[in-house]
Design brief:
The structure is a homodimer. By secondary structure, chain A is of the alpha/beta class. Chain A has helices spanning 48-58, 130-143, 145-150, 173-186, 204-211, 226-235; strands at residues 3-12, 15-24, 27-33, 36-43, 68-74, 79-84, 94-95, 99-101, 128-129, 154-159, 164-170, 195-198, 217-220, 238-244, 247-250, 257-258. Chain A is globular, with a radius of gyration of 19 Å. Strand 1 (3-12) of chain A pairs antiparallel with strand 15 (247-250) of chain B, so a sheet runs across the interface.
Chain lengths: 262, 262
């Protein structure tokens, strides 16, 4: 269950009354990679296989479905056991929205040490018109049922220029995006020439995660950071923030948003 | 600098025009504890000493100022070197808004293994009237200058029933709260009978962080999770969500919000 009902006391200037509120469920997923416990994610209790695979791909532990031998999900205990065909380096750094877990002696982090070295520029001639962006963001808002009920989750979507292809919600903004990419990997859905929508703020971590899938346009309802903007420009990604109602701010590579012909 | 100016293309239904946007700065802080690299936080580049100490306290590495022998902040490189008087166990789990970094073999996570064992109920007879809550939240919104400029940060504050005593902003909602507690520890400011305000959603992690400082009332502009509500009830904390404008939802221990005498 993604939501629960909780008794509340609602207080306004007019007075107080007891009622019920729909609240979002917080759950955990422990990812065990090749019999070794890797990490425990705070998450919404849905699409745990996609979350596990998306997390492993985003953090560089796996690249494609071919590398996965077996996935066993224990919904009850919140455990994903992933077995790969070949060996995997467990000692890699793991990044999250808040921190990079240290495995010791890897040195300090700055723009120059961000994971951009050797990363190819995003190659895509995808273009989209502003009314198409506004329409996608409107559909995105309507699809966010758990957010509408609770206000407590982030959402993400993979789109072409006219349709939402995959949609996900999670209490973590990173998880919502990882679930999208996990589903793409497991279902062999290409992310080339696609668009990612996110409700969340765009930090360098989110940007790099999306760049890793060769996605040319990232559309957010919220704010980007200065580092995300710099990375987007360097990697050739179109980064759009504050896409709300019928307006948006384009922070990089604006030629992909073509003027509307009147 | 907490913010930067970025060139943008603003697109609305009326057309497009080039302009400038104020965007939030994303930075890193690597915490080195007793000469050993512990973690790298994504953060806003302010109050790095408070952030380092607050993080170490929230994660259980230190308890009080007395345990700290020396703090050296390298603003330029984003490094906080903290030396403690006694030895510290580096092998502890580190929790963030998204995941618990594994140090191997510590077992899986569930409500029962959350860090509540042996935790005393919060003892406080603090009470507050609804108009006082509304006034605090109004001042809180006005103080959030970086949020007003960029939309890209979270804020947190320590208050008594009429005043904001300490205020902080950070791109991470956990960091904003850790900065508050770091400042309390370094300046010997008591958190007993105080109130914490946060702009962010309240997960179990945020709730436990606040409970650790014996704070009886946690006020959020956003949504709590089901687990945060359960923990608040178990620990005797008053948890309030959606405190916006002149309304709020009280999720636990409602007696601390006293009816207004007319």
């Amino acid at each position: 269950m993604e939501t629960e009902t909780a008794p509340i006391l609602r207080i306004t200037e007019q007075g107080r009354n007891e009622g019920k509120d729909t609240v979002v469920a917080e759950s955990y997923l422990t990812i065990v990679l090749n019999s070794q416990e890797l990490v425990t994610l705070l998450c919404s209790p849905t699409k745990l296989d996609y979350l596990a695979v998306g997390f492993l791909a985003s953090e560089g532990f796996i690249k494609s479905k071919d590398e996965i031998e077996k996935i066993i999900i224990d919904d009850e205990r919140g455990i994903a056991q992933v077995t790969t065909r070949g060996a995997v380096d467990h000692a890699a750094h793991i990044s999250s929205g808040r921190f990079i877990a240290s495995s010791g002696g890897k040195g300090f982090r700055s723009y120059h040490t961000l994971d951009v070295s050797g990363r190819a520029e995003i190659k895509s001639y995808l273009q989209v018109r502003a009314p198409e962006v506004f329409a996608l963001m409107e559909e995105f808002g309507q699809r966010s049922k758990v957010f509408q009920a609770t206000g407590g989750v982030h959402s993400a979507a993979l789109c072409d220029i006219t349709n939402i292809l995959i949609f996900s919600e999670d209490i973590g903004r990173h998880n919502a995006v990882d679930k999208i990419f996990g589903e793409c990997i497991l279902k062999d859905i290409s992310t080339d020439d696609r668009i990612i929508l996110t409700s969340g703020r765009v930090s360098s971590e989110i940007l790099l995660k999306v760049a890793r899938r060769n996605i040319p346009i990232l559309l957010s309802k919220s704010a980007p950071t200065n580092l995300a903007i710099k990375l987007a420009a360097d990697l050739g990604m179109t980064l759009i923030g504050f896409a709300r109602g019928r307006r948006m701010n384009v922070y990089s590579v604006a030629w992909r948003i073509v003027p509307d012909e009147k």
